[in-house]
Amino acid sequence: MFEQLSPAAPDKILALMAEFRQDERSDKVDLGVGIYRDADGRTPVLSAVRKAEQRLYDAQDTKAYVGIAGDVGFNAAMIDLALGDALPRERVRGAQTPGGCGALRIIAELLNRARAGANVWLSDPTWPNHKPILAAAGLATRDYPYFDAATGKVKFDEMIAALSAAPAGDIVLLHGCCHNPTGANLTLDEWRALGEVLVARGLFPFIDMAYQGFGDGLIADAAGVRLLAGMVPEMAVAASCSKNFGVYRDRVGCAMLIGEDAARADLAFGQIQSVTRGAYSMPPDHGGAAVRIVLEDAALRADWQAELEGMRTRMLRLREAFAKALRQQTNSDRFDFLAEHRGMFSLLGLNDAEVARLKAEHGIYAVGGSRINVAGLPEDDLDRIAAAIVAVTSAAS
């Protein structure tokens, strides 16, 4: 049986992780893996989450299933976090999922049931795992222009032109905030203009909300999604708690469905439960329960928001300091966009050969396409990293 299989294509990010671990250089730097790191290079358990887990341990008296849709309180809290009062709650349904990837996949399966043959439009570039997840659900993809590497800006006019020609009924996948891999976000006015196009063309918005709180703050990061939710008749949101709660390995996510009315929301919710039953049957409970406890308890929520704000502002400081170091090394403003972008990631604008030289000659690991994890930057080594970037590019000329 198995001898008939062809070797699976290696995951480039996982391969990069393995290569970094084997590198014996003492000054090596990992800017590839997409996890938050503190000033000591650790990915800590947040204090609020640890306290919630202790409460859960003390109070939990069963390991019985929580149901196909997971923890009802968790789902309600996540809907409130992402959507606020943007629309009547009777139009929204939520299902707990194994991480943001789980939410993306079951929503994709639902959309394929609802409109087989529709295209999903993805930003160019987008998170590399979007296409495999959508393809596994049977959906075809197309690209819309998004990022100009030369200027570090969003190609908004080109984006709107492409989506204005998309067939009615197609799906548009959007990054709710902190665009991965570029860090370049839409302004609120651009979200509004985009919403007008989606409504006029009859396009379905599918939001990947993986980094709420990592950009300009919890409310500001959700502003575009909330604006859109108030404009369109239907929408889906895949939310992740991996980054903003630091519960990566616990796989905590939420699939949110917005229907034109309560009856259509119920119809979609019934179908997504059917998808879930055929995939993993029930979501895991522990991480979602801990997140629910944090969000429902005023003191724990305040502690969590303070911790999250600390992570967010640290990344902003790193962005500003790194842009300054690059400005000094290059004697140009070529990399000033790093300070303007938001979230954990940015594209440096290097080609693959230059990325390879960074790794081979300087022990600096970045993902192909030159995506870096800003949170992985060592605060006391920014000048050396900036000098290394200059050494492998023509930035100094």
Describe the structure.
- The protein has 397 residues and is of the alpha/beta class.
- It has 2 domains: 10-44 and 312-392, Aspartate Aminotransferase, domain 1 (Alpha-Beta Complex); 49-296, Aspartate Aminotransferase, domain 2 (3-Layer(aba) Sandwich).
- It has helices spanning 12-22, 47-59, 72-83, 99-114, 130-136, 156-164, 188-201, 218-229, 262-279, 286-296, 298-330, 337-340, 352-362, 382-392, and strands at residues 29-30, 92-98, 119-124, 140-145, 147-148, 153-154, 171-175, 204-209, 235-240, 252-258, 345-347, 364-365, 371-373.
- The strands form 4 sheets. Strands 2-10-9-8-7-3-4 form a 7-stranded mixed β-sheet, with helices on both faces. A two-stranded parallel sheet has the order 1-12.
- β3, α5 and β4 (140-145) form a beta-alpha-beta unit.
- The model has no long low-confidence stretch (mean pLDDT 95).
SSE blueprint and pairings:
Elements: H1 12-22, E1 29-30, H2 47-59, H3 72-83, E2 92-98, H4 99-114, E3 119-124, H5 130-136, E4 140-145, E5 147-148, E6 153-154, H6 156-164, E7 171-175, H7 188-201, E8 204-209, H8 218-229, E9 235-240, E10 252-258, H9 262-279, H10 286-296, H11 298-330, H12 337-340, E11 345-347, H13 352-362, E12 364-365, E13 371-373, H14 382-392
Parallel strand pairs: 1-12, 3-4, 3-7, 7-8, 8-9
Antiparallel strand pairs: 2-10, 5-6, 9-10, 11-13
